[in-house]
Design goal:
The protein is an alpha/beta fold. Helices cover 43% and strands 19% of the residues. The protein is built from four helices and five strands; from the N terminus they run E-H-E-H-E-H-E-E-H.
C-alpha cells in the first residue's frame, strides 16, 4: 500500500481522487493548496504526490519547484492532474482534466513502479 498526497482546491475533486486511490488499496492524505501540501510532506513523506496546478495560496508550479529544490523531496514522484498542462512542466507525469479513474490509476501506478525500480 502506497501513501498518496492529493492536492487540489476543489473538495469534490479531492474526494473523487481519494475514492479512486483508496479503492485501489492506497492510503490517501489531502491538502487544499500547495502551502498545506508542503506541511503534509514535511510531516510524512508520501510515495506519490498528485496535484492540481491552479490553486489559491500556492499553486502547483510553485509547490513542485519547492519540492524539487529540497534534496529530501527532490525525487518525490509528482503527477499533475490539471486543466492546463503547460503549467506542469516539472511534474513527472501530466494527466489532463477531465480524466477517467482508470487513467488516474494507470498514471499513478506507472510512477510508483518507476520509484520502486529506482530503490
Amino acid at each position: 500500500m502506497s501513501k498518496i498526497l492529493v492536492v487540489d482546491d476543489e473538495p469534490d475533486l479531492r474526494f473523487i481522487l481519494r475514492r479512486i486511490f483508496e479503492r485501489a488499496g492506497h492510503e490517501v492524505a489531502e491538502a487544499s493548496n500547495g502551502a498545506a501540501a508542503l506541511g503534509c510532506v514535511g510531516r510524512s513523506l508520501p510515495d506519490l504526490l498528485v496535484t492540481d496546478m491552479m490553486m489559491p495560496v500556492m499553486g502547483g508550479a510553485e509547490l513542485i519547484s519547492r519540492l524539487r529544490a529540497d534534496p529530501a523531496t527532490a525525487q518525490l514522484p509528482i503527477l499533475a492532474a490539471t486543466g492546463d498542462s503547460q503549467l506542469a512542466g516539472a511534474a513527472d507525469a501530466v494527466l489532463p482534466k477531465p480524466y477517467l479513474p482508470a487513467q488516474v490509476l494507470a498514471a499513478a501506478d506507472a510512477l510508483l513502479t518507476r520509484k520502486a525500480d529506482q530503490t
